[in-house]
Structure formats: C-alpha cells, structure tokens
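Record type: ASSEMBLY
Status: queued
Input:
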Amino acid sequence: MATREFAAHEAHAHAAPQGFIRKWIFSLDHKVIGLQYYFLALTAVLVGMFLSLLMRIHLIWPNIALPLLGDIKPETYLTLVTMHGTIMVFFVLTTAPQGGFGNYFLPIQIGAADMAFPVLNMLSFWVTALAFVVMLGAFFVTGGAPLHGWTGYPPLSAVPTAGPGEGPGADLWVISIALFCIGALMSALNFITTTLDMRTRGMSMMRMPLTCWSWFITAILGLLAFGVLFSAGILLLLDRNAGTSFYVPLTVFSGQIVAHKGGSPLLWQHLFWFFGHPEVYIAILPAMGLCSQLVSVFSRKPIFGYKAMVYAMLSIGLLGFMVWGHHMFMSGMSPYTAFAFSIMTMAIGVPSAIKTFNWLGTLWGGRIRLPSPMLFAIGFVSLFVSGGISGPFLAQPTLDIPLHDTAFVTGHFHLIMGVASIFGIFAATYYWFPKMFGRMMNERLGRWHFWLTFVGTYCIFMPMHYAGMAGQPRRYSQFTELHYLEKLIPLNTFITFAAFVTISAQLIFVINLFWSMKAGKKASDNPWEATTLEWTTATPPPHDNFGGHAPTVYNGPYEYSVPGAPKDFVMQSDPTTVAAH
Amino acid sequence: MASYTPTVAMDEPEASTGRPGGSPPARVDGDDDFHSPSFDARLRRARLGLFVGVVGIIMIFVSFASAYVVRQGLPTFDSRTNSLVHDWIPVRLPRLLLINTWVLLLSSITIELARRRASRNAALTQVASIPGVSMHSGERPSWLAMTVVLGLIFLAGQGMAWRELAASGFYISATPSSSFVFLLTGMHGVHLLGGIIALLIAGLASLLRHSASSQLIWLDVTGWYWHFMALLWVSILCLLEFVR
Amino acid sequence: MGLVLLVVIWLITFISTYFFVAKTWWLPTGASAAAAGIDHHFATTYLLMGIVFVAAQASLGYFAWKYRDRPAAAPARYVHGNNTLELVWTVLTAILFIGLNLMSSSIWASERFRPAEPGATQVEVTGMQFAWYFRYPGPDGRFGATKPELIDPSAGGESAIGLDTTDPASKDDVVTGTMVVPVNREVELILRAHDVIHSFFIPNMRFKQDAVPGLAIHMHFTPITIGDYEVTCAELCGLGHYKMHGMLKVVSQEEFDKWLAAREAEKQ
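Status: finished
Output:
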C-alpha cells in the first residue's frame, strides 16, 4: 500500500550506509561531507600558503634561483599572486567555515537528522572538489596558470595574448570558478531550506545559536551572489573563445589589433564586485557567528545583545549588496555613483562595530576561561578590529585616491579575511574537534600555535599599511625599478621573515590535528560545558545525530550562569531549568 | 496548494494528528518526523528547496539582463573620430521563436496535467486502498512523456532559430545584440535541458526504484521548475523584443 | 594567560600606533593643490579611527585579564544586553563614520565633479604594456586623430600612440615619454589605454585614475611645487606591471614654454 511504502522508504533512508564508498566517498551524511569540505580546504590552504611563501621570497630576492623551481620570473610571480588569491578566497575561506563546519554542525545545532537534501549535499561537495582539481590543472597546461589576479579584470583576462598564462590556463581558471559557483549555489539551497524547515520542536529562529544564523545569512548571500559571478564567468568565457565583446573594446597589443569592439571592461568589474563584496561577508560571517558562540561559552555569560547580533548580521548581509562600487572608485565610474557607494560603505561599518561592542560586552563581567578555542576567538576580535579600522580609510573616495591598489589594501583585506577569518576556522577546529573525533587537541601545541600565529600575522600585515601609505603598489613582483620604493625594502624584508616564521608555525597545527585524531586525550560528550544541542549527543554523533530521538528545545542558546541554576550552564534541551529566554 | 492536491494527511491513520481537513501542522510530533518526515513535510521541503534554487537561477538571468541593458546604452570610443558612438544594432528575432514559445507554453499545460493527475492518484490510493493500483498505471495519454517531447521540440526549434540567425549574418560574435540573443537563449536552453533530464528521472522512477512518494515529490517539483522555465523564457523574449 | 593576552594585545596596539604617529613610513610629500586637503582629512580620519582602535584593543586586552576565571572571581553576570547602550553606540558610530565621509565629500567633489578649468595645460596620457606616453596638442589646441592600425610601440613616440600624421591637427602634436608641466597651472589629463586597464598614479600629486581601453577619461590636478616626481602604474597590467613607470617634471612656465617649443622645433 502506498502509504506504508512512504514510511518504509524514509526509515530506510536513515539507516547508516554500509561499504567504504557509500560511507566515506559518496557519503550522504552531512557530517562526512562536512569533513570532506574541511580537508579539501586544508589541502587548499597548504597550497595557498606555499604560493605566498614563494611570493615573499621573490619580493626580497628577485634573482634567486630556488631548488626545483628555479627562477621566479615576473610573470611567474603574478601567477603565484593570482592562484594564491583565488585558491584562498574560494577553496579555503568559502569552503571551510560554511561547507566544512556549517555542514557538520548546522543540522545538529538545530536538532535535525541531516541536511534537507543529502544527495544534493554530496553533489555540491564533489562539484567543489572537481573545481579545485580544474583550478590546479591550470598550472600544468601550456602557458601555465593565469597572471591576471584573483579579480581577473579584462581585457587582461580576456585576451590570450595579453600575457603568459592567459591562454588555456585562464580558461581553466574561469571554468573552475564557474563550477565552484554551481557547487556553492547547491550548498546555499541546502542550508537555507534546512534552516527554515528542519528546526526541531522549540527551536524558534530566535533560539538558534548565532552560528546557525551566520550560516543561514551566509547561504542567502551566496544564493544571491554566486549566480552573478557565474554569469560574469560565462561572459568572460565567451569573450575568450566565441569572439564576443562583452568586456573587450578594440585593443592593440604590441602593435597587433585584437578584433573585439565596443565591450566594457567596467561591466566585468560591476558584475564581479556585485558578487565580490558579498563574498567577503560570506568569508567572515561564519567566523563572527562562531566568535559570538565562543565568547559566550568561555565567559560563562549570555551573549550581550543576541537580537542586536542577529540584526547586525542581517544588516551586514543586506548592505553588503549595496557597496560593491567601493572597489571601483578609481575605475572610471561616475564620481556621483562613487559617492553614493561610499556612504553605504561607511554605513556597513556600523553593524560591524555593534558586533564588536557586543563581544566586548560579553567579556565584561564574565568568568573567562582561556583554552585554545577562546584564545583564537579573542584573537579574532583583535584582528577584526585591526582589519576593520582600515576600512573607513578606503571607504572614503578622497582617501582612496592615494591608497587604492597599494599595499594598504592588501594589509586591510588580509587582516580581516586572511587572518581573522582563518582564526575563526582555527577556533572552530579546536572547539569542535572533541565532538567530531572524540578526543581533545593538545592544549600546549594549541597555545604555541596561537601565539606564534597571532603575533606573526600582525608582523606580516600591519607593516603593509605603512608601505601602502608610502605608495607601494600592489602586485609588483619586485621593488627595484622605482626610486621611491627602495626605502621600503627593509620593511618588506621584515614582512618576509615574519611570513617564514608564521607559515612554519602552521605545522604545529597540522601535526596537532592529525596526531590528536589518533592519540589525543579522550573527550567527554561536553568537555567545554556548553549549552547548544551538539553537546547533548554522543561523541562522535551517531548517523542520525541524536540516536533516534529528536531533541526538544526549551531554552535559548546562551544560558550561562543563570542565577539559581544547579550548574553554570543550562542546556538548550534541558526542561528542568527553563530560563526566561 | 493546487486544488487537486490531497488535503488529507498522508501518514498512517493512527499517526495522523486528527486535525480536520487542513494540511498537517508544520511540526509533526516527536520521533516520526525526525526519522520519517510525513509526505506533506517532505513535499513542503522539496518545494521550498526548489523556490530557493529558482531564486539563485533568477540572479544569473538578472545579471545577464542588466548587462544587456547597460551594453545597449553604452557608447563606445571610436579613436578614428575621437568621439563616442553607439554601436547597438537590434536583432530581428526569427518568427520561429514565437512558435517555440507556444510549444513551451503548451508543455507547461501538459506538465501541469501530469502533476495534478499524479497527486490525485496518490490521494485516491490513500483513500481507496485498492491493492495493485500504482501511480503511473499507464493511463493514456502520458502527459509526462508529452512534456518531454514538447521540451525536446522546443530545444530543436531553438537550434533551428540559431541557425537561421547565423545564416542571416547574426552569429554569436557578429554584434553585441546578437551575442546577447545567443547568450540568453542558450543559457535558458541549458536550464531547460536540465528540466528535461529531471522529467526523465521522474518518468523512469519505477526503473530507478524510487518509492511512490519520492516519485510524486520529484514530479511536483519538476513541474514547478518547468513553469518557471516557461516564465523565464517569456521574460527573455520580452526583454529581447521590447527592450531595444 | 589572561595577563599575557593583555600584555601582547597592548604591545601590538602600542607598537602599531607608534609607527603611525611617528610617520616612519608615510605618505610622500604632497606637491599638488589637492594634497593639503587630502592629507588633512587623512590625519582627521586616522586620529578618530586611531582612538577607536586603541580603545577597542585596550578594552579587549583588559577584559581578558580582568574577568579571568579564578576561584575568587564573582560569578559571571547573567545579563542579556542593554538596549539603551545598543542604541547609543549605534548612533554614535553612525555619526562618526558617515560624518567622516561627508567631511571629505567636498574634496572629492572638487577633484572629480567639476571639469578642468579653461586654460589648463592639456596632456593626453596613453598607457600600454608597459610604458606611458604623453601627448601635447600644440599651438592649435587640438589633438590630432589616432588610428589603431598605425600603432607600433617598437617605433616609439608618435608611432606608439598611432598618430595619424595625415590629419592636419597632428602636425603640431608633441609625443614624449616624460611628462612636463608648468607649475601652478591646472593640468587636464585625458587618460587612454591601448590594451589592458592601467592606472596613472602620481603619489606626490595624490593623483590616481585608471586608464581604460575604450574610454577617454578626463581628470585634472594642479601641481604647486617644482620638482621631479615618479609616476607608476597602479592596476595590474601584465608581467611588466612592476616596471611600468614614468616621470613627471614640474617646471616654471617659462621653462615649459621653452621645452615645448624645442619639441615642436624637432618635429620640423
């Protein structure tokens, strides 16, 4: 009978899979998929870091011949710049926080058995993995990987004769990004549907942990932004291969006319940055959500201003779509439009400031514990402030005139994306490791990792602001040609040495990660004494997350130090001590 | 929900929450929904997912449309005359595109008939308890198959329209306007092809060993997707025809 | 650990702020009329943002230490927030940020909203991989036509920009690889590019503008100090981006007239 058939199907769908392939390769389990995303990102970050190391070496010693790799020519340097940026932004910052931790913990934190569409989830990972392989493939084709920067402005990215690597390498770059967009859209679909439709009983939207809010809003941003990047990429592929002229006007390279006509390079910039600005919020929002989580857990205090935090993230998401022109102040765009964008950009600083005040407000009056996850959370707040403060400089077109396309910009976005966001990933790893693997990460190694990275990254990226103010342009493969840049070479040398130390320190993390999986101290189900639903379940969680019984939620996610409660934390699913919220 | 969609809860009678007439509540009690969400819950979830996905696809076409509008008005610098000139030549759209539009709209009707018949069958099965009655009992005509055929005819028609355009000198790289014609129709065609594949999956559900409920959900969601494709096509056509 | 956090955060804050205040590495000397205003606004921004920076970092470090968990510590305060405080600091931040931007808007307007004054020195700047060329319209005040087919960078000068010598207006056009302008007179630039996007950046003049293929962008600035100033490219344009530089020489009006006359004479 049809109805029994219905029920039987569902029950079967949630039985744990058997066999290596179904369990680990084409798994439909969001936890496995989350780990797959995480390890993809880990691979990508190691590649990306290696590329940046080569960049820093070349800047200080332009003529050195490296073992195995030989000379780094100016065009090779630019290839490193391009691939470093592309790999880090897409395959690390847009992958680990959302695809990695979001996939793993969103369903559990809202009390669901899995994501809404497990098959789609599995496909989204494999499409992303394929995109990564295609991206790496660009290194190995004729001409090598492209040199047009992660921003890929045409005509440089649209005309194969514009430079080495702009042939098949650039095509693979665009195709990889297009694939990534598809994977990201699939993933966004899953996150949004899951959050809206699968919260367990009692888990209202305003009782969700801020991590869930951040993943939800990030998914909405991704849904609206990645389609635009995809379109931009299709137009670029057509210009490159089908003779169209969406982006390219008539151009002449070394006396050779390239027969495009009438295209607008600014069109790419508008489309790209319409995606690109929400993208940076996609990179940071999950870290913000996690930071809120951690400062609350480890101060043993409710988050200060939960509603304000939600509205702040929503505002950041919304305003994030209205500021893209601030990347284009010098582009030839109308100065009136530029002014409008700059007002919106200053406005978006306001919700970010609110979140910082609220984190400080959470710490104030708390009982702060400082294990590794909390160190990284506090580090995140410091780095977010530093990276954020340079924003209002760049947001004002008048000040953007001397600062645009200088190292000041590089310092700004690295502090906020390349460090603060990464600290979010580190914090998440140390925090959720016990739940994912049943063991604790080594605390002493965690501390070494934190201090070396925290100080090291400041030493790398703070000086870039000074260099930028002094007029050091971005994407220069060496500083030997301009007289006024010579005095900045010692500063750059310092940065390179700081990079050596900091990159080496990441080995501590990698060793800690893999060693602890096998030999870390065994973890209890709730080692941090936290209140959210993932800590109510077994470690690691069973296939359906909760062992057959959907949890019911009675409390908000941050009920710490509730007066009169037996312990200094009240689980969300605890019916006996129902807090006011 | 459409009027033919069952308003009776699809759970086992014992598990039903007993609410008269209307759809079951959003949260089904306890463990049932956790492991075995009700049919209505799954349908709602699938439709929500489709809606979200459609929003994502809309952004792709919004980007193309805004590029189209911007490019139309963009003067280009002619170094010969040292001045700005407009180089937009509107494309005369082949009549064939209008015929294709009717084909697609017709297919929207057929898929809707397929969708409603399937959900009616499911409701009847629930109530009638007649053993051996299945969803796709081979009733003629198969609206689903007809939709697939119409979809393929549409795509073939698009291909013919492309050839006609190219033959009259408007190939993809000829002018900015022709580039957009090929781009918009091509991207739509790709998405429609995806829809056709989804329909085939729905149609071959029994071969793929899908449960009856999955089949119905798949068909329902694909039906809505198909309507979106038709709406999208009409929008594209209006853009190309009226925004010149 | 709380104390270490405080010390390290405060040290980082102090050291970074020190280098900003000491101007160890700073904006190059301003030599244009707009520079004073831009630099002044820069200083205002960084003073205000500096205060916020120091206050936020110092509080962070302080709280991490003061509210550390220890046996004698009071239980954490069970407080969910304070709406009044939220409102206050939201409004204050908005006033600060938007206020700063509005303060600088007049500079942006004067730089970008109005066209060049009549009588400005006209220079057409053309960027190509990997050099800048400068063209002066000569006594007739008109730039001659250029044709893409005539572009030949290897032949330098007029051929590099594709000057159409059959056009009568081209006869008196002067094309150079160095930009020379008279002091205290507005310079009108017409920015063009042949191949990819370049960006014409003169740090001392606080001037930057992308040169985009397919566009002829009009900008202006007024040099106020005689001297030689390096010009760089500030938009990634290919493998030679790092060496795409030029020189701007600001000279007296007499010297400029002499120089231009000499270039015109060479053309005969």
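Annotation: Chain A touches chain C through 117 residues (CB under 8 Å).
Annotation: Residues 265-299 of chain A form the longest helix (35 residues).
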